[in-house]
User: What shape does this take?
Amino acid sequence: MSDPSAFGPFAILRTAADLSGRVTRWRRQGRRVALVPTMGALHDGHLALIRAARSAADRVVASIFVNPTQFAEGEDFDRYPRQEAEDAALLAEAGCDVLFAPPVAEIYPSGFATTVTVAGLSEDLCGAVRPGHFAGVATVVARLLLLCRPDTALFGEKDYQQLAVIRRMVRDLAIPVDIEGVPTIRDIDGLALSSRNRYLSASERDIAPALYRILGEVASGLAEGRDAASLCDRAVLALKSAGFGSVDYVAVRDAGTLDPVSRLADRPLRILAAAHLGRARLIDNIGVDPDSAS
Ligand code: PAF
Assistant: This one.
């Protein structure tokens, strides 16, 4: 493991006051600041966010905070991988300036009583099977944005519904920040990179790329003018016969609003899915453009 201090003036900050002081200093110097919120256990997908942040801003802050409020009872909060020293070295090497890694009490001080809920968007898809999840995400992201006050904040498109919830929250609350979505980074066989992929056994890892392949089949069917509902039903069966366990959903949605759609017409669509494989719950999504129609 490399020593983060070997990569220049990289700093790990633990308190909101220290973060705010650092960002205020940068702003006085006329620097543009980017924030990349994460829960750690970093992989190349996160490092792509740091690289995109580097090109969008002069200074990059990454946060690592395994946010308890976005995990429901019985989910993987306790076993979520925590490897701060390794993550810090990766961030420093990728050109991040500050890692904000606060204790829980710094994000949720005693007496903290506010929850940010984005109605509608948060109740569907992943929200339907993980009640309260997006309220936890929206609340922590609002808090991080307001503590850091970046010019821009970057999130991966792999968590496409999360990105939509965050965009809506920022718009509704007029939080002064640009939200940038960064395309999903995939392994060579198509599996979207995720910190939770490490829950897969070797044989499950061999099955996992079927998720991306099957989303691609739904995309081809839509491009041929076929009906979304029957394509999604077939995709659920295909996932199960590939070896997946329960399938939470396969859905075709308007790429902007996430409203249900029945077939490809004149607007970009997003095909989204969540399915269980061993101890892992995998999510993925791909886009379909109207000009892909055959
Ligand atoms: O995508 C994640 O890692 C988390 O949901 C986020 C955005 C850092 C909020 O905890």
